[in-house]
Amino acid sequence: MRIVVLTGAGISAESGVPTFRDADGLWAGHRVEDVATPEAFEHQPEVVQRFYDTRRAALAAVEPNPAHEALARLERAIGDDLLVVTQNIDDLHERAGSHRVLHMHGALLSALCVACREQVPWTGDLADQPPCPRCGAVALRPDVVWFGEIPYGMDHILEALEGCDLFVSIGTSGAVYPAAGFVQAAASYGARTLELNLEPSEGSVYFDESRLGPAGELVPAWVDQLLGR
Ligand code: BV8
After folding, report:
1. In whole angstroms, what is the distance from residue 6 CA to residue 52 CA?
2. For ligand 1, atom 9: residue with the closest CA
3. pLDDT, position 20
4. Is the pLDDT of residue 59 over 90?
């Protein structure tokens, strides 16, 4: 059985990573749409850089939770039949042991050089304008997909949605496209669809089944059920 799992901020909530909604759409006093845009970066680069520097630094203080660990266990059981597409920019799936993870909105631990377009692993701050390790230009930005920018891996994602038997959405409000449309694409190709979320999402109506509760409980139970435990 080929499975595509889409994760959102809700899967990292129990790890202590605030979601966009829990912050009432505010991040350190900013509306995410006002900070996570190319225009914001152009007009107030240091505000945007600090917004991501703060979130990057906060990764050191959080750990994967049982939901991340259950998805890593599922990958160990079914390997290439599982693809995790995450909207999250944290590294908790990887730290839980998942390898087949596609960060469609980029990653905090990566920087993008707008001069040479190189993606470079990055753990420190960017607000102090370090030079690009490859070309030396002072042109590094967060390697994050902002509103109005094209998500990473769309060809790979659409191909996986076309070929999957089961699409599972975990911890996302279904507010942002194109991710919010994946359930309808999967269903149109004949996949079964399951939502695991704390509360009904904007896309719940499109799922064959919705289970409500914390990911830390629902995801391990679902993986156990799937693996016949
Ligand atoms: C694009 C990275 C073209 C940055 C993010 C009008 C109509 C439709 C679309 C648009 C429109 N106007 C503009 C658009 C397009 C726009 C969009 O969708 N806007 C929205 C606001 C309407 N989208 C874009 O611009 C995208 N690009 O469209 O390009 C294109 C398209 C296709 C192909 C080619 C070209 C790019 C969007 C990417 C923006 N970047 N993140 C950063 O992180 O700073 S978005 C960010 O918010 C997340 O990545 C995520 O995608 C999104 C929503 O966040 P969630 O993960 O869902 O988190 P949220 O807080 O909202 O919800 C948490 C959920 O978890 C809740 O449901 C809650 O109940 C649940 N939960 C909480 N705790 C738990 C839990 N569940 C389980 N257990 C728990 N413990």
Report:
1. 23
2. 177
3. 85
4. yes
Residues 102, 107: Cα–Cα separation, whole Å: 10
Residues whose CB falls within 8 Å of the CB of residue 43, separated by 6 or more in sequence, listed in order: none
Residue spans of beta strands (DSSP E) within the chain: 3-7, 26-27, 30-31, 82-86, 101-103, 106-113, 119-121, 140-144, 166-170, 192-197, 209-212
Residue 30 to residue 146: CA distance in whole angstroms: 14
Residue with CA at minimum distance from ligand 1 atom 44: 36
pLDDT tens-digit readout, 115-128? 999 999 999 999 99
Count of alpha carbons within 13 Å of 115, Cβ hemisphere only?
10
- Taking the C-alpha atoms of residue 116 and residue 137, their distance in angstroms, rounded to an integer, is 8
State both tokens at 45.
């680069």
Distance 162 CA to ligand 1 centre (A): 21
With a Cβ cut-off of 6 Å, ligand 1 is lined by: 8-10, 13-14, 19-21, 36, 87, 89, 105, 144-151, 154, 171-173, 175-179, 197-199, 201, 214-215
Say if CB 45 and CB 125 are below 8 A apart: no
Ligand 1 mutation target, pool 32, 47, 56, 147, most atoms within 8 A of CB? 147
Residue 26's beta-bridge partner residues? 31
Query: In the block, which residue shows the tokens 């995801």?
Result: 219
Model pLDDT, residue 229? 76
